[in-house]
Amino acid sequence: MFPKNAWYVACTPDEVADKPLGRTICNEAIVFYRGHEGKIAAVEDFCPHRGAPLSLGFVRDGELVCGYHGLVMGCDGHTQSMPGQRVRGFPCNKVYAVEERYGFIWVWPGEAAQADPELIPHLEWAVSPQWAYGGGLYHINCDYRLMIDNLMDLTHETYVHASSIGQKEIDEAPVSTKVEGEMVVTSRYMENIMAPPFWRAALRGNGLADDVPVDRWQICRFTPPSHVLIEVGVAHAGNGGYEADARFKASSIVVDFITPETDTSIWYFWGMARNFKPGDQQLTDTIREGQGKIFAEDLEMLERQQQNLLRHPERNLLKLNIDAGGVQSRKIIDRWLAAEQSALIATDKVAAGQV
Amino acid sequence: MFPKNAWYVACTPDEVADKPLGRTICNEAIVFYRGHEGKIAAVEDFCPHRGAPLSLGFVRDGELVCGYHGLVMGCDGHTQSMPGQRVRGFPCNKVYAVEERYGFIWVWPGEAAQADPELIPHLEWAVSPQWAYGGGLYHINCDYRLMIDNLMDLTHETYVHASSIGQKEIDEAPVSTKVEGEMVVTSRYMENIMAPPFWRAALRGNGLADDVPVDRWQICRFTPPSHVLIEVGVAHAGNGGYEADARFKASSIVVDFITPETDTSIWYFWGMARNFKPGDQQLTDTIREGQGKIFAEDLEMLERQQQNLLRHPERNLLKLNIDAGGVQSRKIIDRWLAAEQSALIATDKVAAGQV
Amino acid sequence: MFPKNAWYVACTPDEVADKPLGRTICNEAIVFYRGHEGKIAAVEDFCPHRGAPLSLGFVRDGELVCGYHGLVMGCDGHTQSMPGQRVRGFPCNKVYAVEERYGFIWVWPGEAAQADPELIPHLEWAVSPQWAYGGGLYHINCDYRLMIDNLMDLTHETYVHASSIGQKEIDEAPVSTKVEGEMVVTSRYMENIMAPPFWRAALRGNGLADDVPVDRWQICRFTPPSHVLIEVGVAHAGNGGYEADARFKASSIVVDFITPETDTSIWYFWGMARNFKPGDQQLTDTIREGQGKIFAEDLEMLERQQQNLLRHPERNLLKLNIDAGGVQSRKIIDRWLAAEQSALIATDKVAAGQV
What we know:
homotrimer
């Protein structure tokens, strides 16, 4: 259960650099490739000739060629040509709205006609030279909402990431959740604590002492369908915490684009954007490597949680205060799903001539 | 189809030495761990907060801590605490009766209230200093009753274990099966034969000549739900066979605790107890290694037999005289299953106010 | 959906040289072994005693011995003996008609009574000393008809085998398909072209220049249930092409026996028969190795095509002129299936006393 009329991150440019990429998104098997003038394109990954996956083919002069018998598919879903054939009557492939922006390729797995590129959220850190970004991709066998829950309740850091970003004070600090239109914000502030290893390294990376008390913050922002951006950071204590001057702090934005593959699997695009030393590529690499290890710690937990839930469909889970971020996020998703369902029924009625 | 109100071997102490152990037994997902004062505990492997497996957590001061968000589960199934939460109203986890005895941890996957530790069979070889024991654990994808059949009809040794304990004379010796209350005993005696390789080594291990005729015996004892203990041995011929003085023989008890995981998979605890040279740890290791190789020969046969049976549900298997041990054992199991079913219906009627 | 009353290639002699072979063919689990005087035999792979696969056993004096408890199965499906048992009343195993011919073992998975060895197609290349043959076996997860389609439309060579036997001219040459009784023949002739790498090597292997224009031909012959033999070759241009004298050409027969394992998997026996330098074993090996690599290129395509089709059962595939070979072959298969179905209904009616 995921909204299909929404922008999801589908892949990164390097994944389509050399050849077409076949990827299932929201249960749709899609082939992504660079078409004319390098413009990204996305069509159903199914050759209308004999059903071969078009993603096993190649791109020639901006057109996708089926690797089985050479059918040439256009980015509009129409077969352009096929050796020795007239293709005018060939059935059309579904076409997906797709946009390349902010270093990602975004796809709208639902009705392409409804896809407005302006609905892709603005990501300042992706366009400003004052920011650097590094990230990666994990495939995880869990419902995308379990990952949203995970990210909207960072008390799990104390347990899952005990040796890096976790610390007892997260557990103990009160959490506040509010809904602002279609955004859910969960925040937690800790004052006058010692930074955990990951943040000590970040302080050092920014030329700051790592052995003095700090203020620490976590501000998680969910926006539908499934994006979670988290402002995180530490500042030498007594300088205003989150509001402290840049001289006193190390901070960043944890980036989480959670793309459903199927009902119980996701493509998880994770990364970190920082606005200190943006030109330091080695620091970017170090942070990405560290984050990759930390975020890998969630995989087993999420997959085993998913299996447990499938095994016990009758059990109701608790919704505690710490879960408010996930609970509110799911409410927004549910509203989107209901709206999509209503629109579908209305469309069907129109099609049936009932209105 | 297995009795749930019965004691099964769940694991060995080394498996819970460092961290909790998640294991499915009779279709119940259970976490085993050492609670207060090292006492073994077993609760449902499901965190009441968000469904994470508790077995991914850790033990702190005798309590099981969920590795996701720190919920503290008590060995009574009640949540003890959780950072920042009042836990009184949290739903309870199922608790399993569990006992540590004879070097094994035993679990009662059914109603804990009915679990009487006195029902665990007495194992003299496990407590007497005159005996030594070594064993191991295999996971096998077959119905637990196929393993009972296997062990209650040792003619398979001639074929499956031809190079170690098998010999043509097993096939040829008559077999006798009798039922004594809830125990099934199948026995076979062979006189004046040459010992096969495994028993030649055992004779040598006990300081006896291995190149002279021996009498050999196999006395298999099934007790429900699924324990099979087999007295096996050889004695220099003409000294009374099974009744011979210890000076003339090498004998032992093959130990088989067969614990259903699911309807078509088992945890198979195998081992050998011997009452000669009990202090010789190297001999224990050598025997365990040898037995481990021999018993591994059954795995493919049992798993492929299971697949064949699932594929041909319409085929009736033969019940020959050699199968009497397994057939009688299944009858006792069936009685237990029927009794459990009746009790369940009676309980339901009481609950429904019909009696 | 495959005809069961038909001869399929089951295995090659080397596969039953040392021990019985268990193989599923047309959803029938069969054990193949060499019985009395080395004569090939095939019975249901299920021991009537306890359901063990007989293929885990061994052959003793021309009889198949079950590896679990020593039941001796005859090639007529009757249990011959079992240690300590009277076997007269044991249920019979299904027996399969089986023939060793042309270097293959052929099986008739349907009614053995209908199996006429004369229906096995004559393979001149397998018996004539003027021919040499080399081949191999692949297991592929696809409907056997997808492989027939593949082989009856060689335009795929241009794409799937671009670096070896493919070339643009295949695509461009007109294809002709005709049905001759129960044989479908699809042929394509290309004139005055440069040979692709595989054929250049074949020309050299036959002592001919490889850098001159050639005529090339492909004549695919399907016969039911699922055999495809393809005459392929090149001749120095201007010598009559397919009809050219042997001095000017390199040619061979691509051999494809496609045996359904299940509805969506096959045993694919591929090979090449050639009538030049038949005594050159090293050339045979080189060709087999080359062909093996080329034919392995089809595997991913066929398996992914199969998955795509299972995912989109509602999509109708196109039937273009290039697909005529496969389409006509499927028509013949459909007729066989219908005939088999009618015979089955008639048999049932007879059995029910309605006629």
